[in-house]
Design brief:
- The chain is mainly alpha-helical.
- It is 83% helix and 0% strand.
- It is globular and about 70 Å long.
């Protein structure tokens, strides 16, 4: 009975991941292939303005909206069968968000009087629209409707892309066009989720609860330093490189980061449903076995993917990166791919903290990682240049994953397979050595090694996918 139950939980996790992935991956790929269009028709200044404003938006949302979207997701999981509980949480959340908007508007109006920038009002509209969009998506997830979450995500991504093309190509609106597209895409997502989930049924002034507000803020406020520390880790490297080396070197680093970012993006899709699954099953009797099983399988998959990217790079780097000024990015990629593995490990353990509502632990470990990253980077940059950025990122994530591994043992006994650790370490050393020697024969040997490693470690998953494909084919034949 227990084995059947474990398989059901894993099937549910896979099904939910696929549902969320459809909405996210489709738009990611479309956006990626439209990059040549954006860079051809937008000036570097326009593209830079949009990127800078989006960076500020990702900073302002957690500061002013107190990670409310994360709290509503986590608290709704516990009341999925309780209609009054859902009304209380959704009403309280939306009321709090409206109050937060007023606070943000007052601060914005005061500060904007001292800022002379033609795009500054997008910082007001797009922050509010993005926050409401995030809120609607997380309410949908909290209610257990990953299908609506997936469609909502797809609407945001697809409409943003379509509107970008319309505003940039025929209308030639440049940065204005991209910022308006982002605003309208988020508004469309808000309307879709609000109407689809009939959220107006869950809003009642009588259900507003100060006690619920207090509990939610107690959970969400400690997540703010965590979010800010991630923001620091992801942007501090670029600021330090630009200031102490050059903006051109920052461009090289940004290109090198593209490959590890893709792996992390794929993982983040899985992590959305893994966090939900962890929260639902944290109190199960066999939670240690369930968590250990999923974490080991996840590590096998993403270690294989990350090492696979390193092994393939000697053959495809010049296809993706054509400009001579970006050639030195080649040497940063393996370090950043290893960083991605530890970043993924950190997030897998972080889901246990979310499930236990231990947001203080998430914040503490993230702040320490942010500090380590900056200190190591500043210490090394004068001696090893651009390598300081990738090495400091690797050290920060490695330290964070080791700490979290030992810390989570207090709550759930996680066992990482020793065979996986040793085989991954040996494989990583072999692949990286062949990568830097850059001899074609050795690189082919490295690629063969990683294929064998990946198939052996993910045989269970490959078998499941193959059985699923055969099942679909057989159904079609019967029809």
């Amino acid at each position: 009975g227990e084995i059947v139950y474990m398989k059901e939980r894993e099937k549910s996790l896979v099904k939910n991941t696929i549902m969320v992935a459809i909405g996210k991956i489709c738009t990611q790929f479309i956006s990626f292939f439209l990059l040549p269009l954006y860079t051809a028709l937008l000036s570097a200044e326009d593209y830079g303005i949009v990127d800078l404003l989006n960076t500020y938006i990702s900073l302002l949302i957690p500061i002013f909206f107190l990670q409310t979207d994360q709290a509503v997701f986590r608290f709704l999981i516990d009341v999925r069968e309780d209609e009054n509980g859902k009304k209380k949480i959704i009403t309280t959340t939306i009321a709090n968000t409206i109050i937060q908007i007023f606070v943000y508007l007052i601060c914005f109006i005061f500060i904007s009087t001292f800022v002379k920038n033609e795009y500054k009002y997008f910082l007001m509209t797009n922050v509010i629209a993005s926050m409401f969009s995030n809120l609607m998506l997380q309410i949908s997830r909290g209610l257990g409707d990953n299908k609506s979450f997936s469609i909502g995500s797809f609407i945001t991504g697809a409409s943003n892309i379509v509107l970008n093309v319309i505003f940039i190509v025929p209308l030639k609106m440049g940065a204005y066009g991209m910022l308006i597209s982002n605003l309208l895409a988020n508004i469309l997502c808000v309307f879709y989720i609000f109407i689809k989930k009939k959220l107006y049924k869950y809003i009642s002034i009588k259900e507003y609860s100060k006690e619920t507000r207090k509990k939610m803020y107690k959970y969400s406020i400690p997540l703010i330093p965590n979010q800010l520390s991630w923001w620091i880790v992801s942007t501090s490297d670029r600021l330090i490189i630009s200031y102490l080396l050059s903006v051109a070197q920052n461009g090289v680093y940004a290109v090198a980061n593209k490959f590890s970012s893709m792996c992390i993006t794929v993982f983040n899709i899985f992590n959305l449903t893994w966090t939900e699954s962890a929260s639902m099953h944290i109190k199960d009797k066999d939670s240690s076995e369930f968590f250990s099983g999923i974490i080991n399988k996840s590590l096998k998959l993403f270690i294989s993917l990350s090492l696979g990217v390193i092994a393939c790079m000697p053959f495809v780097f010049k296809i993706f990166i054509t400009g001579e000024e970006y050639e030195s990015a080649y040497f940063q990629i393996p370090i950043l791919m290893l960083s991605a593995i530890f970043s993924i490990t950190v997030s897998l353990f972080g889901s246990i903290y979310v499930a236990l509502k231990k947001s203080n632990e998430i914040a503490k470990t993230s702040i320490i990682a942010g500090i380590i990253n900056i200190i190591v980077h500043l210490m090394l940059i004068k001696f090893i240049g651009l390598y300081a950025a990738s090495i400091s990122t690797l050290i920060a994530y490695l330290a964070m994953s080791v700490y979290r591994y030992f810390d989570v043992q207090k709550y759930v006994k996680i066992k990482i397979e020793k065979k996986l650790i040793y085989s991954s370490l040996i494989c990583a050393i072999l692949i990286i050595v062949t990568y830097y020697i850059n001899n074609k024969a050795l690189c082919i040997l490295g690629l063969i090694i990683i294929i064998i490693f990946s198939v052996k470690n993910n045989f269970y998953l490959l078998k499941e996918v193959l059985n699923k494909c055969m099942s679909i084919i057989n159904k079609q034949r019967i029809k």
